[in-house]
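Dear support,

I submitted the protein below through the web form. The confirmation email said the job was done, but the results page showed an empty box. After a refresh the structure appeared. I'm attaching both so you can tell me whether what I see now is the final result or a partial one.
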Amino acid sequence: MKISKTITIQKTSISLICEFCLCNERILGLVPMWRPTIEFVFGLSLGFIYAYLNAYLLSDTTISRRSTRCICPQPDELAHKAFTLREGERNLHTQIGAEQTRLQEERSHFLTTTTTNIAESNTNTSSIKNIRLLCWIMTSPENLEKRSKYVQMTWAPRCDKHLFISSETNDTFPTVGIYTSEGRKHLTEKTMQGFEYVYKHHFNDADWFLKADDDAYVIVENLKYFLSSQNTEDPIYFGHHFKVIVEQGYFSGGSGFVVSKEALRRFGQTGSDSNYCRNQHGVAGDANFGRCMQNLGVKIGNSTDKYGRNRFHCFDPEMHLRGNYPAWYYTYDANGARSGTESMSKYAISFHYVAKQFLTIHNLLYHMKPYGLEADDPEDINQDHT
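What the results page shows now:
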């Protein structure tokens, strides 16, 4: 609006000047003698007119500018803003201080908790290291390459001492031969003679003695953790409990069972007496050994954890998870033939019938871990003893 007004006034000024110039030309043409005077008057008038018009334009613009309301902050507003800023800074410093205090408390709690967990873990690890375990694996000449080789490559060396017992000696593998016939009909004598050999040659080499088949996988660290809460001077042994055939039951031979030093001592000293261990032959080596243990006063031990979950498993992991058991298992199993994840202990000890899965299980256990998961805090799941 201001621009259009200025242009209109300027056009008016130019029009007046032009008309005045035409008038001056007519006058000068009529009276030549007055030409100098008239030119002076004309120039002076023209200057006054131009100056007046410019002054008017400048005056209008100035008034228009002065009429515009000032938006600058007033002193009171500046003081209020400064006060608000100081308050905001104080609040920010307070928040930062509180956050730093919280972080320091969390860090202190984390360090305390971590130190405690490490101390407990070291204590548990130390107690496990004090467990001396001998593992003997029942095998056969034809299974040395198919099974025993992979037992040797995976879990067996984690025992403090391990040996393979077969019907023939093999110095290359090596294998201890007890010179019995092979086949299911001779499983009892292989079991009995195997423990007899261990008693005669390795009784002082360990405190606990595990027997396992060559198609079983044993997690030695978990077995040692379980045994750390047991007394090897007690006449006791542990495994997957079957409740039939023997009055107190017996343990499945395939998934392995572990006997205390006292249990092995009783077997070594009295096991050959037919009054205690009558049947030295037959198919059910684990059941016959269980009857022998009962006659020697060796107790069946409970190997479930404090949540009632199994640690020794007489089938492969998949079957125990799915629960598609054979019919006979529901009659035999002393723990209710449970299945699924919650039936399997966090620190499971053994699985049977996994000859083709040795390397897979071993690799999953010891060489793989999901990225980002924190290290597992050891949990004591052993049952309390009264």
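Response: this is the final, complete result; the empty box was a page-load delay. The two ends are 103 Å apart (CA to CA).
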